Amino acid sequence: MVMRYDPFRDLDRQVQQLVGRVQDSAGTMAMDAYRRGDSVFVHFDLPGVDRDSIEVTAEQNTLTVRADRRWTPESDDRILAQERPQGSFMRQLMLGEHLDTQQIQASYEDGVLTIEVPVAPAAKPRRIEINAGGQHAGAIDVEATSGDGAPKAS
Fold it and tell me: Which residues are bridge partners to 37 per DSSP?
């Protein structure tokens, strides 16, 4: 067995244990996000997490991912190293108004949670027809009104 000795790694681990293992939540649930076509995709790395422990919720414009990873050693196990984070993890993302939170889909495969959020139809670019110089597709009639919304007398 080959082991690399790093005296500072052991010191770092002890300091983390003393301060209650305060860790950046992004470090325990790494993610990638990108837009492809008419959807935004987010991938979360969740190796060793049971699919049934993952919870994905969307409330207004906030997407929340919760997951739980636990490993309980057996009574006769002699721990040589225990570096993988254990416990409950949560990550929240703020979604823009242009995303359709009613149509979110999620899948979990090979330790990666993939979430697809479609772009809302109203936010998709649309082509606007250009008419010839003298042609009007329809007149826009703006009637002058008084402050109460009634037509102004002329």
Answer: none
| Contact assessment for residue 82 and residue 18, using Cβ atoms and an 8 Å cutoff | no
**Distance of alpha carbon 15 from alpha carbon 9, whole angstroms:** 10
Residue 50 CB partners (closer than 8 Å, separation 6+): 68, 69
Q: What is the pTM of this model?
A: 0.63
β-strand pairing of 105-109 with 112-118: antiparallel
How many residues belong to the chain? Answer: 154
DSSP state of 64: E
pLDDT in tens, 108-147: 999 999 999 998 877 667 788 888 876 655 555 566 555 5
- Tokens for 39? 């959807």
SS3 at position 99:
strand
